[in-house]
Amino acid sequence: MYQQMIFVNLPVTDVDTSKKFFTELGYSINPQFTTDDCACVVISDTIIAMMLSKQRYADFTKKQIADSTKTSEVLLCLSAESREKVDELVDGALAAGGTATGETQDHGFMYGRAFDDPDGHTWEVMWMDPAAVQG
Predict the structure, then answer these.
(1) Which of 65, 18, 17 is closest to 41 using CA atoms?
(2) Whole-angstrom Cα distance, residue 29 to residue 100?
(3) In the structure, what pLDDT confidence band is assigned to residue 135 with cuts at 50, 70 and 90?
(4) DSSP secondary structure string, 35-61?
């Protein structure tokens, strides 16, 4: 069965810094699609984050590239299998050089935290009780 994938392309200041940050979070780098100006971060079988140098990113758009430390261009949200996994991933991001952002969201059936990566891209990590989703 076909599974649709998402490829998130993000401009970064330093590709090596991004590779180090995301591998410290436990993600892998696909060397087949990684060069000096691009890192292919494998988040899951269906989620790939392409960390592109700003010069390489500019090859794909005629728009001005946002300074993600000052403006919000996108909010990325990853699911987690438990509240503990939310904390594990966000705490790992903070230890690897990320910055805490926003307030912890705890609604009982849903729990989330967020961090900014070294380039200021905001990553939310959320857990939702499966029983709440089923209605």
Answers:
(1) 18
(2) 24
(3) low
(4) BTTEEEEE-SSSEEEEEEEHHHHGGG-
**Is the Cβ–Cβ distance between 117 and 18 less than 8 Å?**
yes
| In contact, 12 and 58? CB cutoff 8 Å | no
Query: For residue range 58-87, what is the model confidence (pLDDT) as tens digits?
Result: 999 999 999 999 998 899 999 999 999 999
Please say whether the beta carbons of 8 and 49 come within 8 A.
Answer: yes
Tokens of 92: 């790992």
Rounded-to-integer distance, Cα 113 and Cα 100, Å: 8
Full-model pTM: 0.89
Dist. CA 93–CA 80, nearest whole Å: 14
CA 92 to each of CA 5, 12, 36, 86, 123: distance values in angstroms, whole numbers, following the listed order: 25, 20, 25, 10, 13
122 pairs with which residues across the strands? 75, 116
Check if the beta carbon of residue 54 is closer than 8 Å to that of residue 12. Answer: yes
- The string of DSSP codes covering 79-94 is E-SSHHHHHHHHHHHH
Of the candidates 108, 103, 95, 96, the residue with the CA atom closest to the CA atom of residue 124: 103
